[in-house]
């Protein structure tokens, strides 16, 4: 396959659609690393065109797009591993993988890798949403992506599950009843010991102490 300028390209190249490969970028923009070259600024239009995105390959265009998006979400120039930067890189990887998968739909390995990246980005977005919601919203607008909340977990109550609930509830009530009886018995013993000790020491007995001693006589 030949391009309009005579160069040969593969079927997966975007040479048939010269504007689509830029994805909204200005083809006259200098390549990454040549933006502030003084000699290039003073060069002729032909030289500038050679060092522009119009003559860049897909790898150079992706690198420029990556640097542009990362710069838009960075806190500063040293920010290379924050959550927004990670999400931005994952988004670019998803778009590149989706483009390749659209050209080879039967590539199951590429499909699994794409699903893996999507899952990692979803988890990272969820964490960013929980920690910094304002930055999360700005990042969605910057990357032009949407975040769909996962559906709430719904468990269908089968007959067996309901029977288990009844058994568990009954067992819990029996345990609570036994614990309550144990605590009441221990409390009664402690009150008896206190009443007997007061009587032996000659301390004044309260009405409750007298009732406890009376019950002890009746039991005996």
Automatic annotation (TrEMBL):
Pfam entry (one): Ribosomal_S15
InterPro entries: Ribosomal_uS15, uS15_NS1_RNA-bd_sf, uS15_ribosomal
Ribonucleoprotein listed as a keyword: yes
Principal location listed in the UniProt entry: mitochondrion
SMART domains reported in the protein's UniProt record: Ribosomal_S15
Keywords: Mitochondrion, Ribonucleoprotein, Ribosomal protein, Transit peptide
GO biological process, one term: mitochondrial translation
Cellular location(s): Mitochondrion
One Gene Ontology cellular component annotation held by this UniProt entry: mitochondrial small ribosomal subunit
Annotated GO MF terms: RNA binding; structural constituent of ribosome
Source domain of life: Eukaryota
Family affiliation: Belongs to the universal ribosomal protein uS15 family.
Protein's name according to its UniProt entry: Small ribosomal subunit protein uS15m
Species of the source: Holothuria leucospilota (Black long sea cucumber)
């Amino acid at each position: 396959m030949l391009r309009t300028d005579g160069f040969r390209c593969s079927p997966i190249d975007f040479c048939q659609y010269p504007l689509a490969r830029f994805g909204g970028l200005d083809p006259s923009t200098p390549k990454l690393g040549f933006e502030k070259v003084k000699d290039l600024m003073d060069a002729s239009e032909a030289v500038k065109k050679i060092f522009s995105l119009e003559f860049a390959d897909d790898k150079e265009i992706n690198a420029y797009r990556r640097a542009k998006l990362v710069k838009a979400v960075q806190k500063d120039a040293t920010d290379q591993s924050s959550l927004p930067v990670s999400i931005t890189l994952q988004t670019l990887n998803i778009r590149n993988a989706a483009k390749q998968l659209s050209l080879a739909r039967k590539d199951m390995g590429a499909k699994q890798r794409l699903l893996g990246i999507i899952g990692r980005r979803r988890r990272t977005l969820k964490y960013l949403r929980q920690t910094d919601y304002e930055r999360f919203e700005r990042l969605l607008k910057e990357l032009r992506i949407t975040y769909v909340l996962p559906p709430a977990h719904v468990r269908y109550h089968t007959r067996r599950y309901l029977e288990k609930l009844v058994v568990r509830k009954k067992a819990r009530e029996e345990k609570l009843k036994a614990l309550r009886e144990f605590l009441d018995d221990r409390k009664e013993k402690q009150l008896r010991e206190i009443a007997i000790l007061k009587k032996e020491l000659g301390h004044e007995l309260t009405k409750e102490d007298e009732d406890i001693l009376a019950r002890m006589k009746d039991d005996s």
